[in-house]
Queue: 3 jobs
Job 1
Amino acid sequence: MASGVAALTLLSATGAQAEGRGDIRVTKTVVNGGNNVIVGTTKRVTYPIAITIRDNSGVKGLSHVSVFNKTNGWGFSDWVDTRCEKKSSTTSVCTATMTIAPAWLPDSLPDDVNHTAGTWQVNATVKANDGDYWISDHIAEFKMKRASKLTTDATPEPVAKGAQLTVTGKLSRANWEDLAYHGLAGQDVKLQFKKAGAAHYSTVKTVKTGQAGKLSTKVTAASAGNWRWYFPGTTTTARVVSGGDAVSLK
């Protein structure tokens, strides 16, 4: 378990393997409650890995947990705590707490650390009360994504009914090398509208981000309501929804 610095692990080119002694096994693993792990530029991120373990003598706990990019083998997360909850005489759920401080990330890898965003895997070594152990590779997969931001501005406000409304915005993404957000070009972003008094937004059109992540489009103002942009995300970039910009009619 690393402490105070990014834990970097290099994955070998071989496939998933498991070895050990006895009948102890991992039967289920859930990372971050089934959600993506999103890392920005300043805020420390902490997430759980819940590992269900079974052995006929009962479960002693975890002796190793690591996470890293499935393709290139690099990763960054500190394993800082483990708590095991006994479910029966043979089964326990051991939850490993992992943490990431963005300040670790610049220059933490010989390559661009942004290349570690994407699909990650979990490895763990589990132990039983009778001395059985199992080295479990690739017990789960999850997405480690770069955080994103999105803005919306609709003008003019108010607008005459039937007139043209210009809706602009900007999509940006966390860069783990310089710990800043930069505009993200070439992405499909949905323009959404919620009529005044309505409960939900609906998609009006899809617009591609231009240089520096900028968005701009024109729509006809048929009614008062809120306009926003919605980016569904990618395998490496987090989903994000902008705040709504309310536009009234004059």
Job 2
Amino acid sequence: MKALIFNPDLSFGVVPDPVPSPAQVLVQVSAVSLNFGEIAFRSAQIRPDHVSGWDAAGVVVRAAADGSGPVVGTRVVTFGWSGAWAELRAVDTAELAVVPDDVDLALAAALPVAGVTALQAVRRLGPVQGRRVLVTGASGGVGRYAVQLAARAGAHVIASVGSPSRAEGLPELGAAEVVHGPANLRGRVYGVLDTVGGQQLAEAFYRLEDDGVIQAIGRAAKEPTVIDFEEAGSRSLRGRIENFNVSTPFADDLAELVGLLSRGELDAQVGWRGPWDRAMTAADALLTRRVQGKAVLTLP
């Protein structure tokens, strides 16, 4: 089958078809979404025939041998830590959700890693009704989902972006305020969903309310975080940082997000969409912050 592989940059190659385990379905892929992390932080030890990719949507062409999961012909969105960027994908039935006919598969493909990460991170803040929640990197894939989901949970959402142009559309998604970096934030916040790391994470920590919490989700800044705890102690008595890692399986959370998308209660925020032979263009746009939200590749 045809697949996108790192050799060393993204290019097409021919690799063996995946062989599903008894608890996996085989999916003919219609669309994949790219994530900043799987490109910027890819391993230097990837095999030449390794198929990367976390997010894909398509149609089941072989049902799971153990009887779990959907039947042949079902439209699905899928997650896994590899194998998405190919014509066929074998995926665990616990890592997929059925996609209704009224939902574009290309939009569904944008949901798994970014959407589920945002959903789980908002939950881990605890009750946020009426509380101030800061989202750093709010213009990115996880960030735009986090703004929407935190606002749905009743939070007063403050979106932090790198430039005024990156703020486009965030108020419509639920951001009550938009700031240019946590250093420009006025007042304190109860919760922080941080996708940037580095200095922005430190600045956000200094601005926590007593007993406030940060979910440290990403490290898009690619720099270490240095915190002056004497400075922090003078502002927040018991603020804390929690290292966020997304939890699997994804099936239930994916189904919840697909439902929101189908009902028009969530916007997939696809900022770049094109055929998969433009993968390098899409990847470069992601790495250089020229995509607002998600980048999606469609297969023939």
Job 3
Amino acid sequence: MELNTLLKKYQHEFAAVVPFNWQSDKVLKLDLTAGNPDLHTIDLNDTKVFEAYLFGKIKQANAVCGFGGYMENRYIYQKRDHFQHSDESRSIHLGVDIWAKAGTPVFTPLAGKIHSFQNNDNFGDYGPTIIVEHELENTIFFTLYGHLDLASLNGLFEGKFIEKGQRIASFGDYPVNGNWPPHLHFQVISEMQGKKGDFWGVCKPSEKDKFSIICPDANIVLKLDEKFYE
């Protein structure tokens, strides 16, 4: 069964990944594309300035968090060397971001085992990252948690069993989290392609179709209310 279909089949069984209630809490969808004029007026390489902008928007909306990003063509990566390549820059976001204060807890949506973990310590990268391996109906897939705090990596080892709904991490702060305003990058991956502790979270526009199959919409697992998500 296609992973996208399988996830939808079991969607009602997934535990919450973050401590917010999508039905009762107010959340703000953030636009990080070139179509957002605000992004052209601030220094996106200055994390403190970028954080003030994002969290100012969240506070203004009286929301508990901001979110968005799956397959969004993001302007914000144009200012970070990590995403620049000689042939074509990466700008298509493959996960869903949840923007909230550092220290926000992170939980696993279903049982699994630690596939791998590492600190991707580059400007614009994931920072501390955990990847968990899951299985449904004999289908193996993975969930990735990026931009964590360093303490989230303590006590981990490959193969460690993780229970459904178990707290495994916390949102990190910059500069530890890859120099981003505090948020969780959550991504679903069908095959790791030999990678450990890391996986592409942003792809080139020309590779969008390929990666949409490898990385189905993480919103299916997060269960963000459809009225907020397009």
